[in-house]
Write a structure and sequence with these properties.
Layout: H1 3-31, E1 34-40, E2 47-53, E3 63-75, E4 79-90, H2 93-113, E5 121-132, E6 138-151, H3 157-167, E7 171-178, H4 181-210, E8 214-226, E9 229-231, E10 252-264
Parallel strand pairs: 1-3
Antiparallel strand pairs: 1-2, 3-10, 4-6, 4-7, 5-6, 7-9, 8-10
Helix pairs in contact: 2-3
Length: 265
Amino acid sequence: MSVREKQLYGIIIVLAVALASLSGYLVALFQQGQHVQYCASPEYNETKLYPIVVGEEQGTQLRTIAVTGLGRASAKPNQAELRLGAVTEATTATEALTKNADSMNKVIEALKAMGIPEEKIETSYFGLYPKYSSYGTLVGFEVTHMLRVTTTSLDKAGQIIDGAVEAGANRVEGVYFTFTKDKTEELNTLARQRAVDDARAKAETIAKSLLVKIIGVASATEETYYYPYSGRFEVYPTPAPPPTSIMPPTEVEITVMIRVTYIIE
C-alpha cells in the first residue's frame, strides 16, 4: 500500500468516527425529556396536544395541562389624576417661554391655595416648538407645559379645574379616576387569588374529562390589566363659564390573568 493510499485510508477512518459520534449526540438530544402538553384554549375551550422538550434527564416524560385563569376585582376609585396646563405662543422662543412660565406659576400657586400639596403637583410634559406659515416661513414659537395633579378629594375635581383655568390654564387633557397605591395592591391580591382559583377549576375539569390526576405545577405567569376611568376634554376661554361638574364612576376594575401549567399523571 502506497503512502498516499495510507493517508486516504486514515482520513476515511477519522470521518467515519466523527459521523458516528455526531449521530449518537443527535439521538441523545432527541430522546432527552420529550413530552406532550395538554393545552386548553381560553377562547374556544379546546384541548390540544403540543410536544415540547423539558428536563435534562434522558427519558423523562412529563404530561401537563396548560390553562388560563381570569380574576377581577373592582371598587369605587379613591384618587383622581388631572392633566392640565397652559399653551402659549409668541414671535420668539424666549418670549413664549416667559409667557408660559408666568401662566404656569400662577396656576401652581392657585393649586396650592386650593389645598393641593406640592408633592402632588408635577410636570408631565413640557415642549417648545417652532411654528411655520403655510409657505414654510417661521412665524413664532409655541410652548406647552402640562401638569399631573393628584388628589383624593374626588368631589373637588371640578373645582380644581375651574381654579386652574381661572389662574391661566388653557388646556385640560383629562381626568383619570384611579386608586391609591395601597388600594391597588389590595385589589391586585384579590383579583390574583380569583384568577388562581379559576385556573385550578378549569384544570380540574379538563383532568377529569381526560381521566388523569393533577399532581403539581410546572410553571405560572401573571398579567395584570388596569384601565382607569377617564374623561377627556379641551378648555377654551369663554366669558363667565359655568362650574365644571365631574362625576366619578361607581367602580373601576382590575383584571389579573394567570397562565398555569399543571403536571398530570
